Amino acid sequence: MRVLGSAVLVMEFFIMCFAMLIAKEHEPTTLVAGAIIAILFLLTPGLLKKKAGWILGSLLQFLMIGYAVVVPSLAILALIFGALWIAAIVVGRKGEAARAALLAEAEKTRGAGNS
After folding, report:
1. d(CA 8, CA 88)
2. pLDDT exceeds cutoff 70 at 87
């Protein structure tokens, strides 16, 4: 779950950097806002060990969609990466559940082998 989420967030960092290149013709405040969002995209993967990291990542998805007001071509990419973020959460949870089941089964067979 963390690997998929981290990959999505880091790719969104690069997309925000490219969006800021397009937005450089606008007011400086839009560049500052884009830079803050981009830096948060880069720092959030380190927080994905905790629930707060996932909440911040979800909030950043909405901020990226909101930045599409400044760079309209970003709207499509924001929606695509928002879907990838949701997929990372869903697929990650399924993967963690399968891993936990395998570990429990391995522990059970290891315990039965010692008897």
Report:
1. 8
2. yes
- State residue 98's pLDDT score: 81
Is residue 40 within 8 Å of residue 56, measured between CB atoms? Answer: yes
**Torsion sign, CA atoms 68, 32, 22, 17:** negative
Nearest to 19 by CA among 54, 61, 71, 55: 71
In the block, which residue shows the tokens 């990542």? 57
Helices (runs of H) and strands (runs of E) counted in the chain: 4, 0
Contact 42, 62 (CB under 8 A): no
Which own/partner pairs from 33-37 qualify as long-range (CB within 8 Å, at least 24 positions apart)? 33/67, 33/70, 34/67, 34/70, 37/63, 37/64, 37/67
Give the span between the Cα atoms of 16 and 107, in whole angstroms.
45
What is the reported pTM?
A: 0.82
| 4-22 mean pLDDT | 94
